[in-house]
Amino acid sequence: MPRRNIIFSVLLFSSFFIYSQSNPAARRVYNTQKVENPPKIDGLLNDDVWKMAESQGEFLMVEPGDGDPISASHETQVKVLYDDEAIYIAGILLEEYPEKIMKQLTQRDNLNQSEFFLVDLNTYDDGENQTRFIVTSAGTQADARMTGNNEDYGYNVVWESEVSQDNNGWYVEMKIPYSALRFPEKPEQLWGLQFAREITHLNSTYVWNYVNKSVGEMSQYTGLLKGVKNIDPPVRLSLYPYTSVASDHFNNNSDFNFSAGLDLKYGINDSFTLDMTLVPDFGQTAYDEVELNLGPFEQVFGENRAFFTEGTELFNKGDLFYSRRVGSTPIGFNDAQSELLENEEVLENPDRTDLLNALKVSGRTDRGLGIGFFNAITNEEVAIIKDTITGSLRERITGPVANYNILVLDQRFNKNSSITLVNTNVTRDGHYRDGNVSAFLFDVYNKSNSFNFAGEAKMSNVNLPMQNETGFASNFSIERTKGEFRYNIGHEFANETYDINDLGISFINNYNNFSGGVSYQIFEPKGNYNTYQFNLYGQHLRRYKPDLTVNTGIGGDFFAMTRKRFAFGGNLGYNTEFRDFFEPRVENTFITYKPFSDMSFFVSSDYRKQFAYDVRISFEEYFNTSHNNFNIRLSPRFRFNDRFNMVYEFQYGNQNDRPSYVTQLDNKVIFGNRDQKKFENAINANYNFNTKQGLNLSFRHFWSTARFVEGGFSKLEDEGNLLSFDYQINDENNPDANFNIWNLDLSYRWQFAPGSEAVLLYRNAIFNEDKLSYLDFSDSLDNLFARPARNNISLRIVYFIDYNNLKNLFRG
Q: With the C-alpha atoms ordered 150, 155, 159, 165, is the resulting torsion angle positive or negative?
């Protein structure tokens, strides 16, 4: 069948799931009005202009109960006004015992244990995409882009807010300029609107427009803001010039760097925004939590670069975008060492690729069509290789100039459903691999939001110097999404050539998996519990080619939280034998692990108290063997006062006698029984002078050893079994490992103007890896401190420039 006919058939199939969606009958409406003299944003609410505004209250509980009216002692009133520049919101939040109001000082986007007032604005009233604005009782701001129930706090815009408090409660004023929003240009705006109030000391949350938690998502239960008329979307142009200086000292070598660049946001029209970064500097991003990785897959890290986390909800559709691919290790990094000629050594080999520039365009039309385009270009990286006899130098390109692109079309309909087309591609200059992936996605609810039908069809194309490979993957699920009792079934498939790893990340392919589950949960408090949930699940994993069973597993988990905010839960599962096709590192070869059971349990105490803790314990036991795995994580936290908070985390893991890959020898795959243990200590402490200035300490020490049992080596047989093998260990082929890493960041952050900040950072890092797996913790730590430490101090200043303010300044 021609490709265009396949796409047409899929689109036709999806149309059978399209239903009309009527607004909830009880949807509340707020009618605002325009003012000539806006209120002063000082948190006092004493401007006469507020008397013109309609006051609405009657908030209803959303957590932990369902629809209970707020008590008179905590009555909450909201008011909304607008002018040609912004929308203005006031909140009056009464409190019978004002001394109980929790107001912990935090920095932007960190709510911690403060009470807060929340506003959701959906300027297209599409039931999914909205912008969230939060002000805490201490005055901290938080903002996020919402897609369904997913919050993206990487999204930051410039707006104003202030709070005040007296013996009757606390008050908030907000000014949200139109430059911080996207909305269609039309005579009257009809915006989805929701207010919420978190009363932390009462462990309760109330909303203005009722939310039925047992059906659909919270974003589908906004009220309606009416009366905003004849406003023109402003020119949305913001500039973020930055400058940074850094001094780096390592192994008796010092380096001083100065850099400057620019981030830009431009509203192309009323719906779409261009984000661009020129000469980006990521020197102050948080360190990666690196671990000893002896498995067949790369370690996955979270994204710490703001450009790649802010406003990326469209680009994450279909899980095809792993942003760490952009600027990662050059594709030919290892080739520089493996392709050395006789008497050659590598002098330089960069392990990171420089990002030259990146841009993204995203937005949504008033008909619900979301469009996203992403582009990034990375520089060429070169290894310098020296001939040790002649002294001559040669260059080896390890990373060519590369161009990364993403295009997304996402059509929303019925205020609860969407269909999406995604394409990603990576083009590299020269004779290297290129990658292209296309996907069709659908996420459809029926009219009553009681069932969800979701699916994906993805096609990958990898262009290699000598051949091209095309792969395909799909998944489909049906889920009951209404009521206390729910169930789901699903299927996942990928052929043996499916590969999205040029811009995405996928560890496995060649599978044909089935899954299902049932669950029960409550939406109103019962007895001593605010909520609890039970789940039973099962899965059957199969290999696509050849068609054989990989694993079958069943299990259950539970979660509960008491009225006093003490949470606990756990899981218990059983799995049949598992055929692992990736641990051997040889195509179409597998090792068979014995049947095993796994269990875990956790408790989490009330974070509102000055001292709180989290404990999680997990254990795996493989039957008829000595192979097992134990892990424990302890995380106590202490709030010294409203300014100073500290969290300590300790993790210990111990794995015994795991059959693990060692090497390949004369076409034999050699395995050994490996004991591995790990210790991790981490501290995160914050001291905030106010909501604009604060100190942060982030520390992590991770130590792990892997030791192969003497005489425990074997070779892998054809059917996945192991046969004892006499493998001799010497200094060159010793597979043991001793891994030690230390990171410490101490930073001072000052938001000296709206959208502008200065960050002073001191960084200390030490790393050591060797074969001395027999060392104890103390001796290994001594070896670590004997290594040279990298000390870095940097200052980065970013200044926010708004075109509209600049224009008015020149007019003045």
A: positive
Cα 611 to chain centroid, rounded: 27
Indicate the DSSP class of residue 214.
Answer: T
End-to-end CA distance of the chain: 66
93 within 8 A of 76, measured Cβ to Cβ = yes
* Number of residues that make up the chain: 812
298: number of CA atoms within 13 Å, CB side? 12
In three-state secondary structure terms, 263 is strand
CA pair distance 198, 3, nearest whole angstrom: 52
Q: Report the half-sphere exposure of 239 (CA within 13 A, side-chain side).
A: 9
- Give the CA dihedral 446, 448, 450, 451, nearest 10 degrees: 0
Res 430: pLDDT: 80
Handedness of CA 429, 435, 440, 445 (dihedral sign): negative
Contact 739, 781 (CB under 8 A): no
CB 423 within 8 A of CB 409: no
Q: What is the mean pLDDT of each run of 10 residues along the chain (812 residues)?
A: 35 34 66 96 96 96 94 97 96 96 94 95 88 96 87 87 97 95 89 97 96 87 95 87 95 92 89 89 88 94 85 89 93 87 90 92 88 95 92 92 96 92 94 92 94 98 90 98 96 97 95 98 94 98 96 98 96 98 95 97 97 98 96 98 97 97 94 97 97 97 96 93 93 93 97 94 97 94 95 96 75 60
Residue type, 182: R
DSSP 3-state of 705 = strand
Nearest to 400 by CA among 383, 422, 423, 424: 383
pLDDT in tens, 446-491: 989 999 999 999 999 999 888 899 999 999 999 999 999 999 999 9
The token pair at 274 is 């261009």
Encoded amino acid at 467, one letter: Q
pLDDT at 156: 86
Q: Exposure of 507 by Cβ count < 10 A (0-12 exposed, 13-18 middle, 19+ buried)?
A: exposed
Contact between 740 and 769 under an 8 Å Cβ cutoff? The reply is yes
pLDDT of residue 337: 85
Distance (Å, whole) CA 660 – CA 672: 5
Q: CA-to-CA distance for 27 and 188, rounded, in angstroms?
A: 19
Query: In what order do the strands lie in the sheet containing 76-82?
Result: 33-34, 76-82, 86-94, 169-177, 160-166
Pairing assessment for the beta strands 381-387 and 355-364 based on DSSP bridges: unpaired
Angle subtended at Cα 265 by Cα 502 and Cα 105, rounded to the nearest 5 degrees: 95
Q: Is 378 exposed, middle or buried (0-12, 13-18, 19+ CB in 10 A)?
A: buried
DSSP character at residue 235: P
What does the angle CA 127 – CA 129 – CA 134 come to, to the nearest 5 degrees? Answer: 105
Omega prior to 187 cis, within 30 of 0? no
Sign of CA dihedral 303, 306, 309, 312: negative
Question: CB neighbours (10 Å) of residue 151?
Answer: 16
pTM (2 decimals)?
0.90
The CA angle 513-515-521, to the nearest 5 degrees, is 160
Q: Tell me the CA distances in angstroms from 799 to 99, 622, 731, 752, 793, one per residue in order.
A: 38, 57, 55, 9, 20
Q: Which domains are delineated in the chain?
A: 3-229 (2.60.40.1190), 240-260+582-812 (no CATH)
Spatial CA neighbour of 58 closest among 210, 213, 211: 210
Separation of alpha carbons 161 and 531, rounded Å = 34
pLDDT at position 793: 97
CA distances (Å), 341 to each of 337, 344, 350, 384, 391, in order?
A: 9, 6, 20, 13, 14
Picking from 686, 704, 708, the residue whose alpha carbon sits closest to that of residue 695 is 686
Please classify residue 497 by burial: count the beta carbons closer than 10 Å to its beta carbon, then call 0-12 exposed, 13-18 middle and 19+ buried: middle
Q: According to the model, what pLDDT value does residue 810 have?
A: 61
